[in-house]
From TrEMBL:
Its cofactor is Zn(2+). The keyword Metal-binding applies. This is Alcohol dehydrogenase-like C-terminal domain-containing protein. InterPro entries: ADH-like_C, NAD(P)-bd_dom_sf. GO terms for molecular function: metal ion binding; oxidoreductase activity. Residues 30-160 form the Alcohol dehydrogenase-like C-terminal domain. The keyword Metal-binding applies. It holds the Pfam family ADH_zinc_N.
């Protein structure tokens, strides 16, 4: 679990998360959830998560999200959803993590983030996107990317050792190594639903 957690830790370092950083996470996928856990360990005081899936939002809430916002996949809903997200935050959104990487999620991130804030693109859903960069630039919103990470494992291990981060609830399914169980594990993972991290037991 240090590998996915490392993505969240690296993202938090890239976005300079601290005790005065209110955070929006777009995408309650496994990476969105480890990013939330990492941000909390870095001291973020308030974290909102938006997603299209109610089950994932329920998991995010159980893991410590301050609030969740159910959104759609429709681009025409962005303005109304950004308003709901900002109202849910009850203050400035200093940093937004886009953990999905689609045109709609990135547009939502750019519009929701406060002037002078940061958008950290973690998700890799689309290779090319058309997003409202000029209005974001006018508000001096910085965009940073996350792809690889280095020197994160010592901090991840420390977070796990001290209990500052608990990744156990993310492991929702466990399977053995028989042919039948391997096939079932992949089907469970591909099916989504309440599956977050599917693990094989040695």
């Amino acid at each position: 679990m240090c590998e996915p957690l490392s993505v969240g830790v690296h993202g938090c370092r890239r976005a300079s998360i601290g005790a005065e950083t209110n955070i929006l996470i777009v995408g309650a996928c496994p990476i969105g959830l480890v990013t939330m856990l990492s941000a909390r360990a870095f001291g973020a005081p308030r974290i909102i998560i938006a997603d299209v899936d109610e089950q994932r939002l329920s998991m995010a809430k159980k893991l410590g999200a301050d609030d969740t916002v159910l959104v759609s996949t429709k681009a025409e809903d962005i303005e109304e959803e950004v308003t709901r997200i900002q109202n849910s935050m009850g203050g400035k959104i200093n940093v937004t993590f886009d953990c999905a990487g689609f045109e709609k999620t990135m547009s939502t991130a750019l519009k929701a983030t406060c002037p002078g804030g940061k958008v950290c693109l973690i998700g890799m859903g689309h290779n090319e996107m058309t997003v409202p960069l000029t209005p974001a630039a006018a508000r001096e919103v910085d965009v940073v990317g996350v792809f690889r990470y280095k020197n994160t494992w010592p901090l991840c291990l420390e977070f796990l050792r001290t209990g500052k981060v608990d990744v156990k609830p993310l492991i929702t399914h466990r399977f053995g190594f028989s042919q039948k169980e391997v096939e079932e594990a992949f089907e469970t993972s591909a099916g989504g639903g309440n599956a977050v991290k599917v693990m094989f037991n040695l």
